[in-house]
């Protein structure tokens, strides 16, 4: 049986206040700025659990639609021949969308199986972690994080690395789940009264790369502005699409069909709630100014 030791003296990455224990044993919330973080274990390339084929089928339509929206809404910010680095490119779907619009797009991916898939699809991919696996001094016009930033340790250092790897007037585009979202708030409320499963899934506990942070529309700009960026564009993205939703829930082999069906019904209710309030996925575009 796993036991977790509570961190008693952990500082907020955004405002340096001491964080407080949150609802799960591994999650924390900053009482000062509202930033959430976790101490969930990361096991990339170590545990084999996800059925990749089912996951691919489930996620591609929604991810591709979100990438098109981001490129539609941010494309006017940067030159038409911009060189884009997609951090954590996975299968290469963002690279595919960006190259389809004429940009030069390169991926960097630490998961060897994923990097292999992107390479096999014909993309230029560096296998390894950002920024260390890149050639020294290599800079880009645009650096994107699509469902990646929330998985990273030491977000202040990551923001600094993005700043130093961008050319003058370059852009960072971060697309991530946010704690302002209706589903995040509803599942956290449920966890407080003892129904912890949905909130554990929001953090992706037990998966190889769980969420290490949950930013909001307030905390992410605060981190980036401190690091020499200016927020220039933001929007909400569709968090859960009906198309592929059942497979998305099912891709975790530890969930049975009956449980998946119940989650599906719950997720549809959450989706409706999300449309009435705030989406659980947002994107933020920052310009390098300093
Ligand atoms: Zn804080």
Question: Care to describe what's here?
Answer:
The structure is a single chain. With 290 residues, the protein is of the alpha/beta class. It has one domain (20-288): Rossmann fold, CATH 3.40.50. It has nine helices and eleven strands. It has helices at 52-74, 93-100, 112-120, 155-165, 182-192, 197-203, 219-226, 245-250, 257-276; strands at 20-21, 27-29, 36-38, 83-87, 104-109, 124-127, 140-146, 166-177, 213-214, 229-237, 281-288. The strands form two sheets. A seven-stranded mixed sheet has the order 6-5-4-7-8-11-10, sandwiched between helices. A four-stranded antiparallel sheet has the order 1-2-3-9, with no helix packed on it. Strand 4 (83-87), helix 2 and strand 5 (104-109) form a beta-alpha-beta unit. The longest helix has 23 residues, at 52-74. The protein is globular and about 50 Å long. The chain binds zinc ion (ZN).
Q: What is the terminal-to-terminal distance?
A: 49 Å
* Helix/strand structural class: alpha/beta
- Rg over CA atoms, rounded to whole Å, is 18 Å
Shape: globular
Can you list the strand order of the major beta sheet?
6-5-4-7-8-11-10
Overall mean confidence score, pLDDT: 88
CATH superfamily: Vaccinia Virus protein VP39
The name of the CATH topology is: Rossmann fold
Please give the CATH class: Alpha Beta
Q: Count of DSSP E strands?
A: 11
Draw up the topology in text.
Layout (H helix, E strand, L loop, with lengths): L19 E2 L5 E3 L6 E3 L13 H23 L8 E5 L5 H8 L3 E6 L2 H9 L3 E4 L12 E7 L8 H11 E12 L4 H11 L4 H7 L9 E2 L4 H8 L2 E9 L7 H6 L6 H20 L4 E8 L2
Parallel strand pairs: 4-5, 4-7, 5-6, 7-8
Antiparallel strand pairs: 1-2, 2-3, 3-9, 8-11, 10-11
Zinc ion binds next to loops.
């Amino acid at each position: 049986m796993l036991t977790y030791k509570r961190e008693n003296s952990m500082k907020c990455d955004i405002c340096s206040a001491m964080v407080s224990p949150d609802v799960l044993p591994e999650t924390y919330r900053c009482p000062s700025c509202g930033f959430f973080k976790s101490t969930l274990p990361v096991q990339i390339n170590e545990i084999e659990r996800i059925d990749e084929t089912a996951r691919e089928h489930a996620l591609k339509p929604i991810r591709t639609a979100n990438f098109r929206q981001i490129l539609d809404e941010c494309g006017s910010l940067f030159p038409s021949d911009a060189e884009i680095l997609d951090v954590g490119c996975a299968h290469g779907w963002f690279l595919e969308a960006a190259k389809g619009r004429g940009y030069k797009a390169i991926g960097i991916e630490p998961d060897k199986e994923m990097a292999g898939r992107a390479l096999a699809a014909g993309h230029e991919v560096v296998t390894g972690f950002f920024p260390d696996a890149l050639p020294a001094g290599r800079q880009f016009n645009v650096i994107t994080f699509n469902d990646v930033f929330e998985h990273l340790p030491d977000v202040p250092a990551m923001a600094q690395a993005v700043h130093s790897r961008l050319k003058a007037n370059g852009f960072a585009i971060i697309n991530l789940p946010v704690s302002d979202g209706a589903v995040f708030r509803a599942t956290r409320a449920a966890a407080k009264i003892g129904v912890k499963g949905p909130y554990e899934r929001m953090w992706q506990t037990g998966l190889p790369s769980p969420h290490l942070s949950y930013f909001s529309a307030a905390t992410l700009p605060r981190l980036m502005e401190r690091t020499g960026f200016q927020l220039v564009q933001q929007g909400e993205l569709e968090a859960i699409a009906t198309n592929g939703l059942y497979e998305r829930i099912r891709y975790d082999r530890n969930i049975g069909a009956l449980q998946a069906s119940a989650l599906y019904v719950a997720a549809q209710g959450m989706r409706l709630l999300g449309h009435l309030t705030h989406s659980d996925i947002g994107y933020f575009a920052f310009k390098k100014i300093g």
